[in-house]
Amino acid sequence: MKNGQAGIEFIILIGFLIFAFAVFFLVINNNLSDKIERRVVLELIEIARTVRDEIALAKDSSDGYYREFFLPKTIYSGEYRIWINETIVFAETLDKEHIVSFPVQNVTGQPIIGKNTIKRVGGEVILNG
After folding, report:
1. How many other C-beta atoms are found inside a 10 Å radius of the C-beta of residue 120?
2. Which of 44, 71, 80, 97 lies at a C-alpha separation of 20 to 30 Å from 22?
3. What span, in angstroms and rounded, lies between the C-alpha atoms of 79 and 103?
4. Alpha carbon distance 35, 37 (integer Å)
5. Tell me: the pLDDT tens digits for 3-34?
């Protein structure tokens, strides 16, 4: 075998190894991105469900019901916002890439990030009021 041929074979081998590592890291990165996406959506779902369930619990309780609950300041991907529009609770990331919604019963007030209070007065559910 000549030195030139051995050098070319070595370069081809190194090129193949670099290509293989690049493909490997690309697959790992895509898998990790998918897991992060799922985690963000699951956290938004959990937050929106918490608000929905607290409203339903207050609606089913008797007058005088009072409870405090907390919504996390951030989620895995960073900050988010949450609001109620008529009878739907929405939770979305600030980049607006992810949004979830659930129907809720009639409520007065809006959820906030952090400490929330919910009560039932005169048959009406009041959130942070």
Report:
1. 19
2. 97
3. 23
4. 5
5. 677 778 888 889 989 999 898 888 888 888 88
Which pTM was predicted?
0.78
Q: Are 103 and 49 in contact (CB under 8 A)?
A: no
3-class DSSP string for the chain? CCHHHHHHHHHHHHHHHHHHHHHHHHHHHHHHHHHHHHHHHHHHHHHHHHHHHHHHHHHHCCCCCEEEEEECCCECCECEEEEEECCEEEEEECCCCCEEEEECCCCECCCCCEEEEEEEECCEEEECC
Task: Retrieve residue 94's tokens.
Answer: 């600030």
Of 41, 123, 45, 111, nearest to 82 by C-alpha is: 111
Give the tens place of pLDDT for each residue, 93-119.
Answer: 999 889 999 999 999 999 999 999 999
In the sheet that 114-121 helps form, which strands lie side by side, from edge to edge? 66-71, 114-121, 124-127
